[in-house]
Amino acid sequence: MSAILACSSSILYKTSICSKLVLHAQQNGMSCPKPNPPFLTEKYEKSRSTDHGHKGQLLSPSYSSIFQCTSNSECNPRFQNVPEVISHSSIADLADPDENNEMARFAEGAKNGNLIPLYKCIFSDHLTPVLAYRCLVREDDREAPSFLFESVEQGSSGTNVGRYSFVGAQPAMEIVAKENKVTIMDHEEGKSIEKIVNDPMSVPEEIMKGWSPQIISELPDVFCGGWVGYFSYDTVRYVEKKKLPFTNAPEDDRNLPDVHVGLYNDVIVFDHVEKKAYVIHWVQLDKHSSIEKAYYDGKRHLDVLLARIQNIESPKLLSGQVNLHTRHFGNSLKKSSMTSEEYKKIVLEAKNHIIAGDIFQIVLSQRFECRTFADPFEVYRALRVVNPSPYMCYLQARGCILVGSSPEILTRVKNNKIINRPLAGTIRRGKTEEEDSLLQNLLLNDEKQRAEHTMLVDLGRNDVGRVSKSGSVKVEKLMSIEKYSHVQHISSTVTGEIIDGLTCWDVLRAALPVGTVSGAPKVKAMELIDELEVTRRGPYSGGFGCIAHSGDVDIALALRTIVFPTSFCFNTMYSYKSEKKRQEWVAHLQSGAGIVADSIPDEENTECYNKAAGLARAIDLAEAAFVNRDS
C-alpha cells in the first residue's frame, strides 16, 4: 500500500480504491486506522489540490461522524425537522448511498447536540507532528496563533515516547486579555469587540455553556478540539482582587497579554503507537442555516485540511546537523532582570519574613535574556533533543511565542476528576543504574527536600479541596520518584471530585498559580513576590495547555519555558527570518528558587542561573544546527 490510506471504521466505499486496500488490510489482520485532524480556513481553499491521483494524496475520502446519542436528549431547536432534511432530494443528488448514510448519522447527532466532529484517519508513517505543523503554518507567519504539543512520558527507568501529539492552527475565535480589558476576535464572523470585565476567564466559560458536543467513541480519549493558549502568573489577580491587585504588580516592561486562548475546531491528533493521525473538524450547527449545509460545509473544510497536510513537499524543514555534544552548550545567558547582588539581597529579605513567621517558604525568580539568530521553531526542535519532557510546547500566541518543556501539570480535569501533581525535590541522574539508585535514595531521605515537598502537597490538597466535594480529596500517590533525561524529582498526586455546579474554569481559578512557584501560605507569599521581584512574570509560572469541548482540562505549569516577545497587537520586541536573511530574536528565560529559613543566597542565585542555562542549551544547539549551517 504505497499511497496514504484513509479509511473510516464505519464505511467502506465498495467501488473505491480505498475500500479495496482496507479489505486487503483486514484480510491480513491489519487494523483500520481512525480519522486525523488538520486545520485551515477558507483562505487556503483556493490552493487546495484537486488532483487526487498524485503520490501521497488521500484516495476516495470518507467522512465519519458516529455518535453515542441517548434517545431522551433534547433536540437542537434550530433543526427540529431532521427527517425532512435527511429525505431532501438534494442530498440524493449530491451524494452516493454511503454518503447519505453518513449524512443521516450527522443529522441524528444534531438531534442531541450542536457541536459535531467530522474526522478522518490516515496513516502517519509519512508525517511527523513537526512537519504537519509546518504544512499548516508558514515559516514566516509568526502572527498566526497556532500550537504544537508533544509529550515524553515517564517510566520507572527513564523517558519513553509519549503516545499522542497535537497540532492546531487558525482558531475560529480568540480571546486576549490585558488586565481587565478583553478583546474577542470572532474570525468566522469577521468581527472583533472589546469589553471591560472583572474576570476574562468568564468569557470562554460563558461561550462553553452554549455548547453540547457529541462524544464519539472512535476518537481517542484525549484532547480533540477546544480552547488552547496560556494563562500568565498574573491571572491570579482576577481571583485575589483585593490582596493582589494589578496596581501592586511589579513593572510591566513587555506588555504581554495576561490571558490568550484560541478556539481550535481543527486539530490533528497523532497516535504514535498505532502510527496514525486523526484529522478533526468540529462543526458548529448554530452557525449554519440547515443541517445539510453544516454537513457539506464541514466536509469541504475537512477536504482542505487533508490536502494541506498531505502536501508534505511544500514546507521547507532543515534537517539540522550538530557535531558537538549538547552537554557543551548552555553559556549564552547575557543579562538578568537583576544583578547577582540584587537577587541575593531579596533572598535575605525573604528569609527575614520567614524568621518573622510571615511565611514558611517563597519562590523568588529572575529573568535572563539572550539573543539568537535561531528561529523560535528551530529552538523548539532543539529543545526536544536537549530536554524532552511530558509537556513539550510550541505555542504562537498574541504578543509572544512560547517554547517550553514543562515537567509538571498545573491542573488536570478528566471526567470531573481533578488532579494536582506537586513536583518538588530534585537531584541529578546517575551515570550508571547503581549511581542513579543511590541518588534517588539520597533525595528521598533528604529531610529538607521532604519537608518542602510535604508542604507543597498540603497546598495542593487545599487548592483541590476548594472546588472538590467534601470527603473526595485524596493523596493517591505520595513521594514517588519521576525520572527525566537529566534529573529526577519527588512527585505526589492529589485528586478530588469537582463540586456539582462548578466548571473546569473554577478548577483553573483555584489552581493558579501552584505553590511550587509561589510559596506558603500562597497569597502572602505572592504579596511578597510583588514587593521583591522587579518585573512582572508574564507567562512564567502560569500555565499553557488546553480546555476541551467536553470540559476536560490539561494545563501544564509554565516552567522551563522560553518566551520570545513579538510585536503583533502589542508594542514589544519582534524579529524574524525574512527570505534568506536571519534577524535577531530576543529570548527570555526565567527561573526561580525556593527560599526557606536556611537558604544560602549564593546557592539560590546559582540555582536560578543553572536552570536558565539548561534552557539556553536548546538555543545554542539550534544555533549550531541551523544558523551556522546557513552561514
UniProtKB/TrEMBL annotation:
Enzyme kind, highest EC tier: lyase
**Pathway(s) of this molecule:** Amino-acid biosynthesis; L-tryptophan biosynthesis; L-tryptophan from chorismate: step 1/5
Q: Which residues form a coiled coil?
A: none
Q: What region holds the Chorismate-utilising enzyme C-terminal domain?
A: 340-611
Source superkingdom:
Eukaryota
Outline the extent of the Anthranilate synthase component I N-terminal domain.
Answer: 125-279
Matching Pfam families: Anth_synt_I_N, Chorismate_bind
| A single MF term (Gene Ontology) | anthranilate synthase activity
Kindly state the subunit structure of this protein. Heterotetramer consisting of two non-identical subunits: a beta subunit and a large alpha subunit.
Q: What does this protein do?
A: Part of a heterotetrameric complex that catalyzes the two-step biosynthesis of anthranilate, an intermediate in the biosynthesis of L-tryptophan. In the first step, the glutamine-binding beta subunit of anthranilate synthase (AS) provides the glutamine amidotransferase activity which generates ammonia as a substrate that, along with chorismate, is used in the second step, catalyzed by the large alpha subunit of AS to produce anthranilate.
Q: Which family does it belong to?
A: Belongs to the anthranilate synthase component I family.
Q: What is this protein called?
A: anthranilate synthase
